[in-house]
Amino acid sequence: MTLISPELKQKFETLRQNIIASGSTNTLATNRAEIRLIMDQNSEAKVRGFTVIQDDPETVGGTSKGPTPTDYFIASVGFCENVIFARNATLAGLSIDSLETVVTGSWDRRGLFEIDNVSPYFRNITVETKVSTKDPVELVVQVAQETHRRCPVHATLARAAEISFKLIVNEQSVPI
Fold it and tell me: Are strands 34-39 and 122-132 parallel, antiparallel or unpaired?
């Protein structure tokens, strides 16, 4: 069983052609979230008709009802990488038996209170993508490279933080 449906390629090709046809008109995408504080460290956001909640752990004043903002931030890197990888794989004719991405980021909590003049930015982010396929490893590497160039979240972060990547194809580490 493949993880990508056959009709997906046509949808991507149509989208690509529509973007090309529009020139530079109407190509800007805008994301919007409306966030409301519920209580203490707990908030809810409305995003495209979906409601998501955020909370901090009880140990830092939350009620542990949901992921933290930094959890969502790191998850968004992996979500975007998977979406764009699947899109690029489809367009390149790469079959995918499994695709998993693990994202890890480290930041200094002292920055939350400006202790020792520390800033709370992510010092590093590591993205590890694991792919199982019967196709050539070179095609997977090509798709992975395109993904890093085309992923909006990656492109934004690459301008601001050190990001390292690991590609594992059929359980073998592959240089990228």
Answer: unpaired
